[in-house]
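Lab notebook, page 48
Experiment: co-folding of the full assembly
Goal: obtain a model of how the components sit together before planning crosslinking
Operator: M.T.
Materials (sequences as entered):
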Amino acid sequence: MGKDFLTSLRPAIVLTILFALLLGIVYPLTMTGIGQALFPHQANGSLIEEQGKLVGSSLIGQGFADPRYFSPRPSAAGKGYDGLASSGSNFGSTSQALVDRTKADVAKFQQMSPGLPVPSDLVTASASGLDPDISPEAAFYQVARVAAVRGLPAARVRALVQDTIRTPFLGFLGDPSVNILDLNRRLDRISATTAQ
Amino acid sequence: MTFQGWLLIAAFVGILLALTKPVGLWLFALYEGRPTPLHAILGPVERGFYKLSAIDPNEDQSWRRYAVHMLIFNAALLLLTYAILRLQAGLPLNPLGYAGLSEHLSFNTAVSFTTNTNWQSYGGESTMSNLSQMLGLTIHNFLSAATGIALAFAFFRGFARRSAAGIGNFWADMTRVTLYLLLPFCIVYTLFLIASGVPQTLAGSVDVTTLEGVKQTLALGPVASQEAIKMLGTNGGGFFNANSAHPFENPTALTNFVQMVSIFLIGFGLTWTFGKAVGNTRQGWAILAAMLTIFLIGVTIVYAQEAAGNPILHGLGVPGGNMEGKEVRFGIAASALFSVVTTAASCGAVNAMHDSFTALGGMIPLFNIQLGEVVVGGVGAGIYGFLLFAILAVFVAGLTVGRTPENVGKKIESREVKLAVLAIAVLPLIILGFTAIASVMDAGLAGPLNKGPHGFSEILYAFTSAVGNNGSAFAGLTANTPFYNGLLGIAMWLGRFFVIIPMLAIAGSLAAKKYTPATAGSFPTTGPLWTGLLIGIVLIVGGLTFLPSLALGPIADHLAMIRGQLF
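Observation: model returned without errors.
Model output:
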């Protein structure tokens, strides 16, 4: 056993150093170089620029609170959609806190646009707290309210939602979704052209 | 449940079955030490590594030497990561200026990544510098996976060799797996992930101004290069706190599908490699059939439970499946499937929060880990864990007919059975023992977020995950405390190496045995009868031990959910 130990020392130490350099430095830095050269947009966070300003990432949700905008899902990331603190609520299915939060959110949506039932994704917190999407049902549910607040024809807003729906890849990978930042940006553009 | 959901599950299994033999063949070349097409490029690196570290790759090591060398290498890696995490503040590539980690968090994290657990008591984006992620953690994702596969190779040799003194060379096995399998695959995989939207940059974060004029800071980093090996090596340690639920780790339904496939890829391949190594690939398919059966039962239960949803929320006017802790782009089917894949394998990555699953939907991931993660399992660890159960199965079969049991031409005698029972019994002993300790101590009871039976489930899941080297969590538990970091760190170490040492001892003992040709009286270790026996042994021996603890946690929680009782 003692001999086994002694013979292991040099390979253990030298290979730790060599593999640390190869896998911990050379590999990630090379991939960073190639990624930045081939896919700079994605490698830097799929950022969206508008008039020289960064307005968000197409992959990360935002905590829209104004009723002029389509509302996102509740978020447990920091105080909501905190890009430095991704997290779910971790409430179990018998949690009093889960029920309290859901009741409050259901009441909020009832007040803005009466009608039950509320689409489930709209009042449940996502796993990341940064979910960029809502379901098509959750978007359609909010059409009447958003149209009324903005003074736009409901049909126009409904058509916009329809147009923003992303269908699942190959028809079965994932669920249909509506990117909330994309939807709200297009909504702003419609409002701007209508105002003119 | 939807047709699309079942199509997803069918496509997932179909693709993996199609890839089993090609991957198995590639692994078999590495098992035998034969050259692959990649040797032309990476051969000089391999030989250079051996030269600098004075390794003779052809030295045949006894099981003792194999074990000691593996342990010392893992100890060296552990120390390196501990040092990097403690000294983080003074090291480069720390764009957000994060401080060094506490002693107990550094200990827990270093053990966690060395043991292929990747339990995370911290939130990645708010704790780790880019250097810590790359040099402290990513290297373990490669080397703990390579160690697992090397150990599986050693165990295969125990069955395959006849009257042999050694079980191979640890350094050669580990180096070849890293250079000719994990690294090249991850280079391609990383590029796919970047193209799909996973960031790969040395910047720490970027500030944006939302449409409503609020400042939002988005954490970035070299995510893709870590994500690739995190899945392929069944490690599961996320760059971000939300792991594969974070849109920057897993941006689309397609990346999600590929991530699930890559968790199982090597595990599936190794079953074929085992069959080939012992000279009959039907042995491998019989094992895979047993694994797949248990897996599909689990998938069906979780999918049904999550699609049925939470009756308490239905009562509030929120119908449909359970979307708490799930992402819209994946939906319920892909979240349910991912949760079973990641816990059947000892991956531990999550694309949905298991803590927020329905009680029974969350019980299956927990139960998968309690079975010892032998349903496909972690790379290497899954197949050697399963073969330990196979030893018990031939023993039971031998008892029923009154013959000395044998498996692939090797007599299974009292030494092997004792060691197998030791390796298998260690898991429940530590899981239940430590859970009991945490459930009565104030420091343990301070951990759970949820109250009632679900709070107990959070503690039970934590120790199950640690001992099983899974790394997923009922993440409501506040684990970054000296008590949990310390106890979970010890649990992870025992759970890994107290299985490995008896396993290697069996390998050494089997390798030394003569070959016993099968006779008419031998129990065949192929075919449906054998597959059925394997399933029975895994479920009864692996599962029954945990039934009382499951009754206190998830089952009580389920009954409360039906009655509408809140905590």
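Interpretation: Residues 13 and 19 of chain A are 10 Å apart (CA to CA).
Next step: discuss with group before ordering constructs.
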